[in-house]
Amino acid sequence: MGRKNYRRQKMRRKLYYIGVYFALIIGITGCGIAQAQGNIDVTEKNETTITKTEIEEIKTSNEIQSEEIVWDTEFTTRDLEVGYEEADATKVIFSDTGIETEGNGVKINGTILTIEQEGSYVLSGNCEEGQIIVNVSDTEKVQLILKNLELHCEKQSPLYVKKADKVFLTLEEGTKNKLSDGTEYILEEENNNLDGVIFSKADLTINGSGTLEIIGNYKHGVVSKDDLVITGGEISVTAIKGGLYGKDCVKIKEGQFMLNTGTNAIKSDNEEDSDRGYVYICGGNFVIQTDTDGIKGQNLVWIANGSFQISAAEDTIHSNGDVWLEGGNITLTAEDDAIHADGDLQIIDGKIDILKSYEGLEGATVTITGGEISLVSSDDGINAAGGSDGEETTNGRTPDNFRANSNNFIKITGGIIKINASGDGIDSNGNFYMDGGSVYVDGSTSNANGALDYDGEAVITGGEIIAVGSSSMAQNFGTSSTQYSFLYGFSQMQKQGSSIILTDSEGVELFQYTPQKDYQSVLISLPELKEDTIYYLTSGENEKVEITLESTISNIGIKGFGIGGMGRPENRGNGEMPQMPQSQEGMEAMPQRPERGDRGLKGNKEMEIPEKSKVKPE
């Protein structure tokens, strides 16, 4: 099922609930609506199916899980080593008229250099039509040291690793290097798949501290048909298609990156091996602008640290499998999803600022155990849904059919999360669990969406949540919860900027929150809330409302289809049926994927250098 069908079915679900909502209004109106007298009534509804054992089973370890797959996140000693024996290295100087060499291991044909022996080669000079070919045995390693080299090849890859065990491309400190190609290649049968400025059929490592500018006029910037490892350097890629590609994996430890690409900026897509096809980043400073996805992995995208500013016409971070975020400073501007996983999305730590997105965080499951997250979305803020982002599926997953599915869940046990969503704030096609953290939701003003929306069960056992939004689709937590919460419906829409304040009977302020949108309902759950205790709720300039919680889960001033069902405000004072919005705003169709627009990036942010990763012998 494609994304359009995905959205269409979602809208059908919304419209179904709205239809039930109208039916109930008519039914209740026909029987007469009782007006509230004196204090506000607290209504408890007991509809729950989940057991405590099931809750504990879902609260698994906060550590990243991966079905016993061992991902290679190590960097070898030689990946990090930038030195070489200058006396033993072969020196090569390019010019438009030919190539000068000092040393052994090379063959020269005009301005084409072929390296035929293992060793180190220092490359410099300027040539408008030259090429470097590495062709050694598959047990030999080659180190290429770029020392102020500028090389253009019009009809093929300027740097082509035809055969080797591994190639190390070292950017010498203080040097500036540039590689570029033409707009059309002339290829022979033995090399008919060349499609990158740097093209390697062997493992490729880029290290050092110099600069490298890559201009891909034909297709891609850097292509490795095995592993692509980067441990340093200042690398700029401008390419018609992809930026950095490693079929088996892309691993990045450090470096400065400016990537402007027509397709995926960083990508690994091995579909044959379950432990390959992944992107692992534990450091570096990235500024990315792309016309498709920013960072994409077939089986996994794992970000442990680094500074990222990504602007993408589709998803900024995408995996056909899982996404793990352990740290870093991440700023995202997405025309589609900001962070999307067909499988599990896990956020352990880091600072994530989503400036624009269709959906902010999306996965079959979404688990948040820490970090600071701020997001803006034109549809759902956090969404747990089965199926993939497009027509194809992966790992046997099928597109979402919008039935309650226990395999889909959102679990929050820590972190600070701020959501500004035009669709549902938190939307799970299965269950929602909260055991810690602080969550603040500015939900939709449309009555077709709610600040909280789930199809299964919602259980809160810790943390704090304040979620505001419209009233007709408002949902509370379920009665399996052990922490007290209440859903309050205002008799009329409250204006944005009207602070919500909750105090206890002694006047001690428990919290204060200022919504960024108009709202008519608020869901509050705090560890401090207790049974049979008086609280006072104030919104804007309204008088204080006295609230006494008589049960763990309470609906106050709002009616619905049971705990967790959609609600509507009670009519207090006029006995009339609640009115749906007169404009189309409340019945608007689901947001459509935005057209590609201005995806300009903000300035770079400083980054903290991560601790050194594991080092293993070469």
Kindly describe this structure:
- With 618 residues, the protein is mainly beta.
- It is 6% helix and 44% strand.
- The model is unreliable at 1-63, 391-403, 565-590 and 593-618 (pLDDT under 50).
- The chain starts with a helix and ends with a strand.
- It is elongated, with a radius of gyration of 29 Å.
- A hairpin with a 6-residue loop joins strand 50 (558-560) and strand 51.
Summarize this entry quickly:
It contains three helices and 52 strands. The chain is mainly beta.
| Unreliable parts | 1-63, 391-403, 565-590, 593-618
Radius of gyration: 29 Å
What is the overall shape?
A: elongated
Q: So how many helices? A: 3
Distance between the termini: 45 Å
Helix proportion range: under 10%
* Mean pLDDT value: 82
List strands and helices in order, with pairings.
Blueprint lengths: L2 H29 L10 E2 L8 H7 L16 E2 H4 L9 E6 L2 E5 L3 E4 L2 E4 L3 E9 L3 E5 L5 E13 L5 E5 L2 E6 L4 E6 L14 E5 L2 E6 L2 E6 L3 E5 L2 E4 L3 E6 L4 E3 L2 E4 L3 E6 L4 E3 L9 E4 L3 E6 L4 E3 L2 E4 L3 E6 L4 E3 L2 E4 L3 E6 L4 E3 L2 E4 L3 E6 L4 E3 L1 E4 L3 E6 L4 E3 L24 E13 L4 E3 L2 E12 L9 E3 L3 E12 L15 E10 L5 E5 L4 E5 L5 E7 L8 E6 L5 E4 L4 E4 L1 E3 L6 E3 L45 E2 L2
Parallel strand pairs: 2-52, 3-7, 6-8, 7-9, 8-10, 9-11, 9-12, 10-13, 11-14, 12-15, 13-16, 14-17, 15-18, 16-19, 17-20, 18-21, 19-22, 20-23, 21-24, 22-25, 23-26, 24-27, 25-28, 26-29, 27-30, 28-31, 29-32, 30-33, 31-34, 32-35, 33-36, 34-37, 35-38, 36-38, 37-39, 38-40, 39-41, 40-42, 43-49
Antiparallel strand pairs: 1-49, 3-4, 5-6, 42-46, 43-46, 44-45, 44-47, 47-48, 50-51
